């Protein structure tokens, strides 16, 4: 569908992240690339669950005339996104700590200059 | 950032804001099954309160008051509550993580179907798990930031 | 040379992602068998007004346990990295 | 009592090490001995439960467990037609993989008691148990998103463990490479999961398989793309050839037992790949194209593994490249099996190829694992990994050199040991498909033998180097764990038919027959 514009936005975000990972040399930038891809995928999951004119699936003080279930967005993608956000935070924390230790040992963040592993 | 942290103005405002942020985080955690929110979201707010302290006062001073070892114990406790709730569900009801608290006096009320004003004493094991996860996230994220900040400060000397 | 090859591969991959979402359902009108069940029954089965929380902690509670474990793992990993050490 | 235990066995297998991992940081403050005993108890308990469960599954068929449901054996909520809750599904293939993981974790834990010392040991065991949890979770889950979660647990804990010794920074470098690549792979698994969810609004693998296989007019484009993404990500995580770069680095820098455990981790990813190909998609795919692709991946892996192993001077990196070649053998066999799979019917050679491939998963972990354990002991005692600086170790490490010899014979696929038992099945089956393939496979094995014999001579034989004249004795626990592995290998080598009949063939049948898997979830609709 040509009107799937939010999906295309997701792909553009993922493409930006992939480009950074593939062509940049600084480790911090690579970590940023991973975060951008994570955000893209999270956005993708959220957009998957959107229903036109839908409200949040919470019943507290819901407007009385909301059709159930057709007037609500899907809850499962939101739960999946929550999970994947936390996983993203965990991965990012570990990557950043690796970068701190690596910088202490090598004194550089350039991936081309840190080749102590033999080829 | 020096070892003493930021200026006096920032420190004072942070000490004013810290309890407010913490209370807000508790609100989000405790009302997670009624209004938008939950353990993770509230935990992230609470952790950001602690991070605010770390930024304002410096990691050394905060580490003296609450070390990351204590946070790790706190975090393990949260995780243990989660998994033990699941195991109790296995023993008391049918399966692991089954919602055995529905229809009991504790968190057991069932709200009317459809739109309603919401009951705090509802949700079965959901509030328990929310609290467990909230504990875990506050302690865990603060511990990570504290460790990283300590490592960065140690490097400067 | 290697860079150009990588770039071509990158463009092909992105095009491929584009086509995959082009073929997906119309935005705003997803298929919803599983989710309708959850919206209809979440209140009676879990007693919670917030359907998202009931998915997170009840219907997919095991995922949340896994996710809490991921956080725990990452923190243990960070602690192992920054431990005081005497190298062997 | 036993019945209740068996009903809840799938979740208990995961919950026991997980609970222990959460308790360990608390116990660690009190007593280190208690911590070790607790970790060992958890692993042994898991192993016992796994064996009980596997026996039950192989005798009585597939077993499912619905988490949080009112009835553990019903995947569907009452009165509805799609599964909503997460299910654990244990069939004979899962049981086979779970046995491998828990056995390897037991051996690895024994080895680590002797190997890992100093600050941070408590966290080491915590992460070790979490890695076990990640593998077991991946191998038993019946839910695609859950697979992603446990994949992340596995990769994060392995990355942290690889970086356990920092030395001069090389382990961190290997580790950061590993975590970046595996989180990328995991993100694309998540993206593919999202695509499938958007297309069918399902996350359960059995229900997805039923939807995909019942479609008239072939696969939709979206599910084809999702398949390609899943194939690429999991083959990357399994260390197959074009994307194998992270594997020798990671294996080479990890502490001894962790290298072995990582091999089991890659096999868990391989299992996920097999699940996706055989269970979710099965004959909805074009078997000749995908089978051919797997065969090519396998051949390239074998070629790269063997040629790169030739030029290595670092002992553990060399074994790492050998591991790439072994993964190639598995992919080759599985590819031939899938190639022969037409309309759910398997020809005799296809069956034999799959038997060889699945059996080789176990043998690969055992062979490469044993070699890694010996290499870890050498590094622990001499602090030296360079092959040019090692020599004459047979005098001071008699038993270790014997175990290395066993591992060498098994990796090269020579008769009395387990490597031969599975490789002969593979050769025989692929000979019927194309004689050329089997000649290449045999040649690669011969090369492998040559490489390892050379290594054996340069490390263990020859004059004793002065720098290595007074190295300490090998710790008893290390020798015990090596002895356990070699005992199993010799048993497999002597009685291959018994293993193939009782363990491998049920696994192959479970793999090929996705109808039983689907009906166990959807209840025969």
Class from secondary-structure proportions of chain C:
mainly alpha
Helix count from the secondary structure assignment of chain C: 4
Indicate the overall shape of chain C.
flat
Mean pLDDT of chain C: 87
Oligomer: heterotetramer
Helix content of chain C: over 70%
Class derived from helix and strand content of chain A:
mainly alpha
Instruction: Summarize the main sheet of chain C.
Output: none
Number of strands of chain C: 0
- Report the span from N to C terminus of chain A: 47 Å
SS field, number of helical segments of chain A: 3
**Proportion of residues in β-strands of chain C:** under 5%
What is the terminal separation of chain C in angstroms?
A: 44 Å
The Cα radius of gyration of chain C reads 22 Å
SSE ordering of chain C: HHHH
Biggest chain-to-chain interface with counts: A-C, 49 and 48 residues
Low-confidence stretches of chain A: none
Describe the main β-sheet of chain A briefly: none
Task: Explain this structure.
The complex is a heterotetramer of chains A (119), B (157), C (88) and D (525). Chain A is mainly α and 119 residues long. Chain A is 61% helix and 0% strand. The longest helix of chain A has 32 residues, at 75-106. Chain B is mainly α and 157 residues long. Chain B has one domain. Chain B has five helices and no strands. The model of chain B has no long low-confidence stretch (mean pLDDT 87). With 525 residues, chain D is an all-alpha fold. In chain D, helix 2 (32-60) runs parallel beside helix 4 (121-140), helix 9 (246-253) runs antiparallel to helix 10 (256-281) and helix 10 runs antiparallel to helix 13 (348-382). Chain D is globular and about 75 Å long. Chain D starts with a helix and ends with a helix. Chains in contact: A-B, A-C, A-D, B-C, B-D, C-D. The interface between B and C is large, with 47 and 27 residues.
Summarize the model shown.
The complex is a heterotetramer of chains A (119), B (157), C (88) and D (525). Chain B has 5 helices and no strands. Chain B has 157 residues and is mainly α.
Topology:
The complex is a heterotetramer of chains A (119), B (157), C (88) and D (525).
Chain A: H1 5-23, H2 27-48, H3 75-106
Helix pairs in contact in A: 1-2, 2-3
Chain B: H1 8-30, H2 39-57, H3 59-65, H4 68-92, H5 126-156
Helix pairs in contact in B: 1-2, 2-3, 2-5, 3-5, 4-5
Chain C: H1 2-22, H2 33-46, H3 51-59, H4 61-81
Helix pairs in contact in C: 2-3, 3-4
Note the main attributes of this structure.
heterotetramer; A: 119 residues; mainly alpha; 3 helices; B: 157 residues; 5 helices
